[in-house]
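dude i think i finally got it to work??
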Amino acid sequence: MNVVSLAGRPNTGKSALFNRIARKRVAIVFDQPGVTRDRVTREVDVMGRRFMLVDTGGIAFDRRVTKDPLDDETRMQAELAVGDSSVCVIVVDAREGILPLDAEVIKRVRESGCPCVIAANKCDTPDDDWRAAEFERFGLPVFPVSAEHGRGIEALLSEVVARLAPAEPDESAKRPLRVAIVGRPNVGKSSYVNKLLNAPRVIVSDIPGTTRDAIEVPFQIGSGPEARRYMLVDTAGLKSHTQMSKTSVDNFSLFRTEDAINEADVVILVMDPTLGPTMQDKRIAGKILDAKRSCVVMMNKWDVAQEQGIKEKDAIGAVRAMMPFLNFAAIVFCSNKSGYNIKRTVDTIDAAAASASMRIPTGMLNRVIEIAAKKTLSPMIRGKRLKIYYGLQVSTNPQTIRLFVNDPKLVTPAYLSYMEKAIRAKFGLEGAPLRIFLKARPRSATPSGSSSGCAKAEKTEGDN
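look at this
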């Protein structure tokens, strides 16, 4: 796929322009130099052409301005993005005019050999367009734009699309599986992405809060129609309330992480087994459950944990005891440093996604419910007992089952949990959340218990 990168010195409005083109608030926009560090990507469709749009942290920096210890890493990510690009849009601040750092950015982009154009940002009105003319001295096409108000964007994109390489047929163009990687700060989320890609795709450091945006990284195994395509989403570490600073950047990072969870097909919860399950891990797990997302628990740094004498069964017991509501999630022990079990994490992601989309035959589902109900009767409540007439799978992603009963008020949480365990014991569904809803239905409306009766029940429910 063609790649279009946005480059420039800090605070010229690259992230605002990125969000304008993507038509969604993906990159964090804040009036502070050095907010964007990693490459933020989004697949977009512009004028009938699909390409990967990339926001960068900046190629040229003045440490006296950014005061960021990760300037070198940010610059490297920006240079890698430009090197991969079909077209680079150099974003400048028309109000401030040409600064030495602008000239340095243009020089570096040209040296990369990437075709480029200049977006003179912050031309909010037609009266500001004259400011863009100053940048024509570099001999590149210049477009006065306003990322904030959307002025001039169409003309800029027309030029960008015209410079793209011809599109090649993509046999594996099906929607990639979105995998959000979440957890506390410094548990190894970014290291995991880099290990999978075997490349320094995202910045890794011991500084808490290194990752700020939700970073989308395409990942593919194999080629052609059988290729397995993923969109890995590296997220900012979720801090506890006491760790949260009062800056807007922390709040924006939190919102982006929550959005990544809600949009994901599968969420990987990365934990540090040397610290054990913490209250913050439990809060993050709660967000995954609230979003009804498939989940894999990844115990990273397992090589260090083994050196400390920690056993798998003890780690599993601690997680299950701390987060019983996440018992459906598989637990994988791995090490980003040594590569131990990294391949298994991908297989577990695939299994969780498959569980979430599994279609459960109505006849088999009702047989399981019937056997479970006969084996263990529901408790008596006010002299009455819950009766389950039949059940239907009404949706997938998340798995949702509706039970038609005599009175939903007669169910207890324990009995509902018992039914969930019975269904999972038969169909697996490891990694996928399972929702069970009850709906009252009179006995006279109950279909027969035969296979044809179950099919009739499914049709009746669909018609309703």
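Confidence is low (pLDDT under 50) at residues 27-37, 448-464.
im so relieved honestly
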